[in-house]
Structure formats: structure tokens, C-alpha cells
């Protein structure tokens, strides 16, 4: 196991212990704006991760959701940290949330770790070495039609009335086995990687939402692009993640939806 991956796994497990402890206690919720919330556990988790990364790799840049990292244009290494992906779930006691830590070098993914402390599921990958769940290799599913696929998506907390994803949700619900919306993008990507879902799409995700999971998916044999099929970078306006076999079909359906007049 390389040093980058080892540190990421250690940091994820340390943060996971903090989250699991917070999960058992009443939540202290703070709002970032009108609807976007953060808990004290988010901040404690991020503090632990950032401290570990700074200790082991002091020259690396860190982009973290709650802003305690350091961004540096002089470093070719950038860590993307979501200390508690699925904060709303966590605040309501719904056990679908995770720590997500991804490392990029010169815009290319090197390491990805996603850890759900409730289920004790540790997903991880390093470039060229495959993807794993709790030390066992994982691979995307072999389903090759959208009609036989279980897919997932998500919706933003801001300006929901302006978000066109409801049209995609409706169409993909009719054309697939069903659409799930669990509220933690990093876990959605990992579910594609291990064959639980065949596809995931979403709009407006942040870099820390997808940086770890996208490597885990590709190392598991899947495919990542934007919704139109163009190359995707963390923080891009849309993302499409599939097992590769249904990618073109999902992309075509998305193109048909995008070509329709928007109606609410």
C-alpha cells in the first residue's frame, strides 16, 4: 500500500470514529445560509483529516468542504476532503453518510477513499491498482441495458425549484428498474463501483463530493464523464457515472431530456 493511500485510509478511519461518536449524541446544527446545514461533527471530522494530511504532506494543497484546508496553486498535489458527505442524513439520524478523501496530481486522480462508519464499509483505490471494499476487489455490474438497471441521483439544497433534474428523475424512473436518492454522492459512486447501481448522475456537485469516488469507479471498471459524455473534472457542472455498459444509453436519454423545452 502506497504512502498516500495509507494516510488517506488512516485519516478516514479516524474521522469515521468521530462521526460514529457524534451519531449517537444529539446534533448541534448550524445553518450555512437558509437551508444548507453543518454540524459540529463535520468540523471535528474535517479538523482531524486536515491535521493528518498537513502532518504527513505539509506541501500539498487541501480543498476541504468546511474551509479548514489550504489551497495552493504552487503544489501539483491536491487533496479533496468531504469530512461528512450526507450531513442532512446524519443530522436526521439516517445512516447513509461517509468520509470522502481524494488525492489528485496535476489534475489526475491518484487515490480515493470513502468510508461509511455505520456499516464499516471502506472503499478505496489507487491509480492502476484496482478498487476494493474492505480489502476485497470490487467490479462494476455486468448489466447492459438501462431497462434492467438500478440508478441513482441527487438534488441540491439550494434553488430546488430552478433545478431541472426532476425531469431526468421522472424519465429515468420510467426507463429503469428504479431511481434511488440517498443523499450522499460519494456513496452513490461507490455503489456503482461495487455493482449495486448501474448508473448515477447529478448536477452541481462540488469537487470534494466526487474526487475520491470517481477513481474508485474507474478502477472498478466503470466510466465517468459529464452528462453529455465529455471529460469530467471534480466540481464540473454535471457528472455521469456508470458501469460503462449502459453509459451510451444513459447519455442518449439525457440528451433527449436536455433537448426538450423546460417546463415546471
Brief description of this entry?
34% of the residues lie in helices and 26% in strands. The chain has 264 residues and is α+β, with helices and mostly antiparallel strands. A hairpin with a 2-residue loop joins β5 and β6 (108-116).
Q: Which regions have little confidence, pLDDT < 50, spanning 5+ residues? A: none
Helix content: 25-40%
What can be said about the biggest beta sheet?
A: 7 strands, mixed
What sort of overall outline do the alpha carbons produce when their principal axes are compared? globular
Oligomer: single chain
Q: What are the secondary-structure elements, in order, as H or E?
A: HEEHEEHEEEEEEHEHEHEEH
Write out the strand line-up for the largest beta sheet, numbering strands in chain order.
3-4-5-6-7-8-9
Give the secondary structure arrangement, pairings included.
Layout: H1 3-23, E1 29-32, E2 36-39, H2 40-56, E3 61-64, E4 77-85, H3 87-92, E5 98-105, E6 108-116, E7 121-126, E8 131-133, E9 136-137, E10 150-153, H4 165-175, E11 178-180, H5 185-193, E12 199-203, H6 207-219, E13 223-225, E14 238-242, H7 247-259
Parallel strand pairs: 3-4, 10-11, 10-12
Antiparallel strand pairs: 1-2, 4-5, 5-6, 6-7, 7-8, 8-9, 12-14, 13-14
Protein model, in words:
The chain is an alpha+beta fold and 264 residues long. It is 34% helix and 26% strand. Strands 3-4-5-6-7-8-9 form a seven-stranded mixed β-sheet, with helices on both faces. The chain has a five-stranded mixed β-sheet with strand order 11-10-12-14-13, with helices on both faces. Strands 1-2 form a two-stranded antiparallel sheet. Helix 1 runs antiparallel to helix 2 and helix 5 packs parallel to helix 6. The radius of gyration is 18 Å and the shape is globular. The mean pLDDT is 90.
Amino acid at each position: 500500500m502506497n504512502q498516500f493511500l495509507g494516510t488517506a485510509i488512516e485519516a478516514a478511519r479516524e474521522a469515521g470514529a468521530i462521526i460514529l461518536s457524534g451519531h449517537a449524541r444529539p446534533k448541534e446544527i448550524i445553518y450555512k445560509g437558509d437551508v444548507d446545514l453543518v454540524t459540529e461533527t463535520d468540523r471535528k471530522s474535517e479538523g482531524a483529516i486536515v491535521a493528518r494530511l498537513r502532518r504527513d504532506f505539509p506541501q500539498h494543497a487541501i480543498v476541504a468542504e468546511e474551509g479548514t484546508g489550504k489551497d495552493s496553486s504552487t503544489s501539483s498535489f491536491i487533496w479533496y476532503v468531504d469530512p461528512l458527505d450526507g450531513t442532512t442524513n446524519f443530522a436526521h439520524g439516517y445512516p447513509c453518510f461517509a468520509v470522502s478523501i481524494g488525492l489528485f496530481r496535476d489534475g489526475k486522480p491518484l487515490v480515493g477513499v470513502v468510508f461509511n462508519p455505520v456499516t464499516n464499509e471502506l472503499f478505496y483505490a489507487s491509480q492502476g491498482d484496482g478498487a476494493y471494499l474492505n480489502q476485497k476487489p470490487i467490479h462494476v455490474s455486468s448489466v447492459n441495458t438501462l431497462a434492467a438497471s438500478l440508478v441513482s441521483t441527487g438534488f441540491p439544497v439550494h434553488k430546488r425549484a430552478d433545478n431541472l433534474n426532476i425531469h431526468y428523475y421522472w424519465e429515468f424512473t420510467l426507463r429503469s428498474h428504479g431511481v434511488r436518492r440517498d443523499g450522499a454522492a460519494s456513496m452513490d459512486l461507490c455503489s456503482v463501483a461495487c455493482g449495486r447501481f448501474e448508473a448515477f448522475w447529478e448536477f452541481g456537485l462540488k469537487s470534494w463530493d466526487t474526487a475520491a469516488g470517481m477513481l474508485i469507479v474507474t478502477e472498478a471498471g466503470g466510466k465517468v464523464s459529464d452528462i453529455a459524455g465529455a471529460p469530467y473534472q471534480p466540481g464540473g457542472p454535471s457528472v455521469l457515472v456508470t458501469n460503462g455498459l449502459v453509459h451510451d444509453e444513459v447519455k442518449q436519454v439525457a440528451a433527449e431530456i436536455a433537448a426538450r423545452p423546460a417546463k415546471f
